[in-house]
Amino acid sequence: MYKASLPLNLKLLNMAGRSLRLIGIRGASLRPRNLLKRARRNTNLNDFGPDDFREGLDVLCQSLETEAQLTTFGRLIAQADILHALENRLKLIHSFKVNRELSGSPISRPLIITGIHHAGSSLLHDLLAQDPDNRVPLSWEMRYPFPPPRTETYHSDSRIARVNRELNNSQRLMPELKRLYPMGAQRPQECVSITAMNLTSMNFGVTYRVPSYNRWLEEHANFRGAYNLHYQFLQHLQWRHKTERWVLMSSSHLWHLDAALKRYPDAMVVQIHRDPLKSVCALSNLTYTLRSLASNAPDLRDISRHHADLTALGLSRNLAFRQSGKIPAKQILDVHFQDIQDAPLAVVERIYQHFNLPLSETAREAMESLLQTHDYLQYDRHRYHFMATGLRLEEERRRFKPYMDYFKVTQERV
User: 8-406, what's its fold?
Assistant: First the structure.
């Protein structure tokens, strides 16, 4: 487990904040009304589009106030995260109002990678990004998507340096983060950053302890609006820089694959499988590190229980959906973590063959070059101690057995 290493000035800020809370001063506002007002003021825009995001905003803010145990710095981070999502939402809605042609740019046959966390999806996403025919959302354009990226400056845009500086600052506060997760402005980014604009994102539940928000997300959130916004966001990004197809990746699609396919009915889906307990251990450690930046009280056992329950729910839903036959076999391909580790290019070839996509020699050479210059195994070398999670091994094995049996997932040592 790794905790964030706060510099002296932030430690002093948190100490001062504790003293101020004793006299009723909380610090950065997390009231929805104030956040909406400030987002409007910062952008000079007023139209948030459909109101379906407001329930998520209310639940998230209440959960942050009452359950997250935020420090003064943590409140500033949470406020900035929500404002960023709201401001990007305002800008996206405005972009469609002033550029009518955006609505006429369809998203056709996107390739969606999903599966439980820490199962090789980042490596697969990076490899597929080497194909010039594939368009992946990169970290810099996800963070600062306005104005839309252009082909002529796509690899030299000033926003790339800006995001790299921000990531370097994050790594100074959490030096172990780069060993846990690949980072970089020009690396492919997950879709959870997009659905954050609709306040329906699992990202919030990783960065902060928000159990009430997580329950709402799992049981009551309507992802129709989230995927509509997701579709519009991709239309915006591809407006001035378009290739043959989008390649998207997020574990969150696993929980709502039916909703994703309603918005993208012609999507090509790759589902990655791995022993869920390895995923729970890895994600719990990452979550512990991230939460330590915003709270003095991250609890690994509480985090592990949350991720075990959430993973069980996602796999149960996914198994029922897959067994229902609602997705044709030709539209989805199952791959396993060990295959990605042992022979990643062979997995790529299977994907292209399954979906009848051409794999050019240029793309293949770029993928081979990436594998020769990047050590992806480093992110799986950490030793996670299952006993530290407080979970009961046999109980968890029984819980995940239906999933592992159905997809023939190899049990790993934890």
Answer: Rossmann fold (3.40.50)
